[in-house]
């Protein structure tokens, strides 16, 4: 497997091996045993992001809060997620630093407090399914649910747990910061517990949300937005199984994205356990051409990298290039600035139901300016002075196109854009008056290259 950027997403239960080993020192010991294969990956040349779950740990915080309610104010769920990001991030940073020191290596290691944008209209708020806290006997869980107003569910045959809402993330606010840290050689711990769930208003105001984002889905989103080559989800079993725990149990070696989605639709995987892992890897592979996704045991990471362990999810047959307008009523839209993956207006693409297709460039008939370093404006020219501008092509439902346009800064509009491969799609175009007195950045060939060169956030 060729190296590149990798996201390795550990589950919270991987740190709490059982009810007899849930203390903080015991969790740190587990982390310390986990990190040597990660440093092996760094030595092989991987840019590494480590993410982690926090279901048991958030549950511990909430239970302590309930027990101490007569003495101190309760801890909201989003703050409990933030607490666990700091504590578990500290565990990983310390263990990774110590393993680097043991090998005589020097590399910056940093844990990033990460925010995941969610929609307040997400139906997950009406159907809490995300397990948090310890595994309990059914009788005890039922008693606590009655006394404390919990919702509970049985978790993959291992016991009963409290459940909370788990809305789907649409963006990771720190994606570009994480990209810069990786480019600077850092090992990054991020998307802890799926990220702190927040809503973002039109004016940029951030508000915490009482929920827990699934760390596998959030890790897959971050991996996609970073353009990672590998998403690995270590879990408690060496492979994914269908018919788990039944006489028909079958372990899977390699499946396609389509097969994975068929298994999900038929209910083959636990809603709060294996299903989000398979869903996250399938979505990542489907949206990131050439990438690899794998689920397997933490202790078998070397074998996973060697291709001899784990369940791989691979892309389906590559479809023919999409036409300018699809049969489903969607249109192809080229974006050249802050609508791109991971940038500040990318949530507008998610809100419109858009799907990323590919990166490419335009024909060399455009020039591009920075508008007060807040966003670019691309304009077609006919005097031979144009350049090829880096763009992303997205498939956008026709009904969502107006919403994207209405949320664009003044002076930008939708027009036809010619791509380097000869295709003509819709695209975000600037009005000539908008660039008067502004700085031209055509020499950089695109907005990402310009912001990277200038050190802009």
From TrEMBL:
Domain (Aspartate/glutamate/uridylate kinase) ranges: 5-286
Alphabetically ordered keywords of this record: Kinase, Transferase
Pfam families recorded: AA_kinase, AH_C
Record field: catalytic activity: hydrogencarbonate + NH4(+) + ATP = carbamoyl phosphate + ADP + H2O + H(+)
All copies of domain Allophanate hydrolase C-terminal, residue ranges: 332-451
Any one GO cellular component localisation term in the record: cytosol
CDD domains xref list: AAK_CK (cd04235)
Uppermost EC category: transferase
Record-linked SUPFAM superfamilies: Carbamate kinase-like
InterPro entries attached to this UniProt entry: AceGlu_kinase-like_sf (IPR036393), AH_C (IPR053844), Asp/Glu/Uridylate_kinase (IPR001048), Carb_kinase (IPR003964)
Molecular function terms from GO: carbamate kinase activity
Gene3D superfamilies registered for this protein in UniProt: Acetylglutamate kinase-like (3.40.1160.10), Gamma-glutamyl cyclotransferase-like (3.10.490.10)
UniProt record, GO biological process: L-arginine deiminase pathway
Its EC number(s): 2.7.2.2
Family of this protein: Belongs to the carbamate kinase family.
Protein name per the record: carbamate kinase
Provenance organism: Mycolicibacterium anyangense
């Amino acid at each position: 497997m060729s190296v590149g950027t990798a996201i390795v997403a550990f589950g919270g239960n991987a740190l709490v091996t059982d009810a007899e080993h849930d203390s903080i020192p015991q969790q740190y010991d587990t982390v310390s045993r986990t990190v040597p294969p990660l440093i092996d990956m760094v030595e092989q040349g991987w840019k590494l992001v480590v993410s982690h779950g926090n279901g048991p740990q958030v549950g511990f915080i909430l239970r302590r809060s309930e027990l101490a309610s007569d003495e101190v104010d309760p801890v909201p769920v989003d703050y409990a997620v933030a607490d666990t990001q700091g504590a578990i991030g500290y565990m990983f940073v310390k263990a990774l630093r110590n393993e680097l020191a043991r090998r005589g290596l020097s590399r910056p290691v940093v844990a990033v407090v990460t925010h995941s944008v969610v929609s307040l209209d997400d139906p997950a708020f009406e159907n809490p399914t995300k397990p948090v806290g310890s595994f309990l006997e059914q009788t005890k869980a039922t008693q606590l649910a009655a006394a404390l107003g919990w919702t509970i569910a049985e978790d993959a045959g291992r016991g009963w747990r409290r459940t909370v809402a788990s809305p789907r993330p649409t963006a990771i606010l720190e994606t570009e910061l994480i990209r810069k840290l990786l480019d600077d050689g850092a090992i990054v711990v991020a998307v802890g517990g799926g990220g702190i769930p927040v809503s973002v208003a039109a004016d940029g105001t951030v508000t915490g949300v009482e929920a827990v984002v699934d760390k596998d889905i959030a890790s897959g989103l971050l991996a996609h937005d970073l353009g990672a080559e590998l998403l690995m989800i270590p879990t408690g079993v060496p492979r994914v199984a269908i018919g788990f725990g039944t006489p028909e149990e079958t372990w899977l070696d390699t499946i396609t994205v389509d097969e994975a989605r068929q298994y999900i639709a038929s209910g083959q995987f636990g809603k709060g356990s294996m299903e989000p892992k398979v869903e996250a890897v399938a979505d990542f592979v489907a949206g990131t051409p050439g990438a690899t996704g794998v689920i397997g045991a933490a202790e078998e990471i070397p074998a996973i990298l060697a291709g001899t362990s784990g369940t791989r999810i691979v892309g389906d047959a590559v479809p023919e290039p999409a036409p300018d307008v699809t049969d489903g009523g969607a249109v192809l839209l080229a974006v050249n600035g802050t609508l791109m993956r991971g940038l500040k207006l990318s949530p507008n693409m998610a809100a419109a139901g858009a799907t990323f297709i590919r990166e490419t460039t335009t024909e060399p008939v455009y020039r591009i300016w920075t508008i007060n370093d807040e966003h670019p404006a691309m304009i077609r020219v006919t005097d031979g002075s144009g350049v090829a501008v880096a763009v992303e092509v997205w498939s956008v439902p026709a009904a969502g196109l107006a919403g994207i346009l209405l949320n664009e800064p003044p002076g930008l509009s939708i027009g036809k854009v010619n791509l380097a491969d000869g295709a003509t799609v819709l695209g975000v175009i600037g009005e000539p008056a908008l660039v008067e007195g502004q700085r031209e950045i055509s020499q950089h060939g695109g907005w990402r290259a310009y912001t990277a060169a200038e050190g802009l956030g």
